[in-house]
């Protein structure tokens, strides 16, 4: 398969559809793959209202809502780390861990707090961050927005009320 026919997605390999020569009808052009790879991360507003972060890490493109589900932290400044074999972006504000593939929030659970030393393991809080499908067609990167009708916690930072307040705060900073 030539690099122009490659399809790169956030889904697991077992659920990857065959390569396509054209983007999905509901997809949005993000840019050239080579530019995104060079930049590492890119912020894009899709449909005139949804702010997404597109990032390239270890040969894979990922897309998610820009702001952390917890308190709206800017994920474009988060580090990528591996926790229990899962790649996560770590929110720079409160260190919340979000899986790149599924948008799950991870936390460290303690087996038995009475036993010393404490034994911890990573657990999922469930999907908290909206993840979007990334596709590459002939060197161009497209994102198809996640159309799951179920509310996801990161959705609150995509509302008109939040965007309007955020824009006003940026244009009218406190003295």
UniProtKB/TrEMBL annotation:
Alphabetized InterPro entries for the sequence: Rieske_2Fe-2S (IPR017941), Rieske_2Fe-2S_sf (IPR036922), Sol_Rieske_ferrdox_dom (IPR054716)
Keyword Iron-sulfur attributed: yes
Organism: Champsocephalus esox (pike icefish)
Pfam families recorded: Rieske_4 (PF22543)
Spans annotated as Disordered: 1-27
Sorted UniProt keywords: 2Fe-2S, Acetylation, Iron, Iron-sulfur, Metal-binding, Phosphoprotein, Repeat
Domain Rieske: from-to ranges: 28-121
Protein name according to UniProt: Rieske domain-containing protein
Stored SUPFAM superfamilies: ISP domain (SSF50022)
GO molecular function annotations of the record: 2 iron, 2 sulfur cluster binding; metal ion binding
The keyword Repeat belongs to this UniProt entry's keyword annotation: yes
């Amino acid at each position: 398969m030539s690099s122009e026919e490659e399809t790169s997605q956030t889904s697991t390999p077992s659920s990857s559809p065959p390569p396509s020569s054209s983007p999905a009808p509901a997809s949005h052009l993000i840019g050239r793959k080579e530019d995104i790879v060079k930049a590492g991360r890119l912020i894009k507003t899709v449909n005139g209202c949804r702010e997404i972060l597109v990032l390239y890490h270890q040969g894979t493109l990922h897309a998610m809502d820009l702001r952390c589900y917890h308190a709206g932290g800017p994920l474009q400044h988060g580090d990528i780390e591996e926790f229990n074999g899962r790649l996560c972006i770590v929110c720079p504000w409160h260190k919340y861990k979000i899986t790149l593939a599924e948008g799950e929030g991870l936390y460290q659970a303690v087996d038995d707090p009475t036993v010393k030393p404490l034994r911890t393991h990573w657990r999922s809080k469930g999907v908290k961050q909206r993840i979007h499908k990334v596709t590459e067609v002939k060197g161009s990167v497209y994102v198809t927005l996640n159309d799951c009708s179920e509310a996801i916690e990161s959705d609150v930072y995509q509302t008109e009320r939040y965007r309007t307040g955020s824009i006003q705060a940026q244009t009218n900073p406190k003295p």
